[in-house]
Amino acid sequence: MPFLSDSLSRVKPSPSIAITTLAGELRAAGRDVIGLSAGEPDFDTPDNIKAAAIKAIEEGKTKYTAPDGIIELKRAICDKFQRDNGLSYTPEQVSVGTGGKQILYNALMATLNPGDEVIIPAPYWVSYPDMVRLAGGTPVIVEGQLETGFKITAEQLEQAITPRTKWLIFNSPSNPTGAGYRADELKALTDVLMRHPQVWVMTDDMYEHLVFGDFTFCTPAEIEPGLYERTLTCNGVSKAYAMTGWRIGYAAGPKELIAAMRKVQSQSTSNPCSISQWATVEALEGPQDYIKTSKEAFVRRRDLVVEMLNQIDGVTCPVPDGAFYVYPSIKGLIGRTSPAGTAISDDEAFAKALLAEADVAVVHGAAFGLSPNFRVSYAASDDTLREACRRIQSFCASLS
């Protein structure tokens, strides 16, 4: 009898975490590695949020809380959804978890049965398909191509839906591409969903506040109120408020679903960190100036990276609508050879050679379900990004 669970054979470790870990190990060994693989703002958490956490500690708010969040935070989340998205929820409709990933995982664990299908547009965040598999479901991948701005069409969605479809996981702006769905594009998708009442929508709105230019964020239940009763609207504070290590994600949806997610969480991790919860109350209710300041920096960095990557022969880098990633195509580099003799047969070979020969860590496109591309996180200083792009330019120019 095997010791390990059969379910583990259906999943693999996160490629982005693996590459980030390897880059850290190489730096510790003395290599001058520039890591552009982690999806993490390089800014510090705003001072008012840190002060709220310190105050919570000093006031002894360090005990267990309700399994899925304190009432004060749930009320703050309800206010946020009303203020930013025009969505009305009560605290009974809100779940708070240890990061956005746990919220998504809880929902899938609470709802999926063997044979249930989950539609996932590609490129996708690396964890979506494996979380579906771990919960016993079947991921159905629908590809958005470079030519469509990495977005899927209503026709593609319609064709992917079957009687076994239970969820659509929707992420805009996207990790890894930064592509965002405009209101008319999202309305076309929600029109399809209205024709299929068995399909629920799980939104990942983690990059809601990191949108640029004339792009306006919108979320499915906001665009189509008819989907309100079968939408789980998910968000968190990790990206917008530079709180990745605080581990707070949240979601709102129908009471029955939230209750089922609470049951899963009560028998796994139980409550998120009490101190982080009070810090998140301040993040949502306190001054929002930090968001504007960080957005200005991300726009500048985006433009720098896009310009320098598009100067490379064989690379095409679209301009993203939000988040802090670019997802350039290396179609024109496939088939070449690096100075060390590595054949650039695919994007994984490219990323490995780039790290080995130019000391730049990026994530290969196959990890996100669409090749030949690679993801760059531009959540780094301007000088770091400029040097990293210079190395990438030099590496690509050296290919024969």
UniProtKB/TrEMBL annotation:
The lineage's top-level taxon is Bacteria
What are its GO biological-process terms?
Answer: amino acid metabolic process
GO MF annotation: an example: pyridoxal phosphate binding
- Parts forming coiled coils: none
Recorded E.C. number(s)? 2.6.1.-
Q: What UniProt keywords are attached to this protein's entry?
A: Aminotransferase, Pyridoxal phosphate, Transferase
Which PANTHER family is this protein grouped with?
ASPARTATE AMINOTRANSFERASE
Q: What is this protein called?
A: Aminotransferase
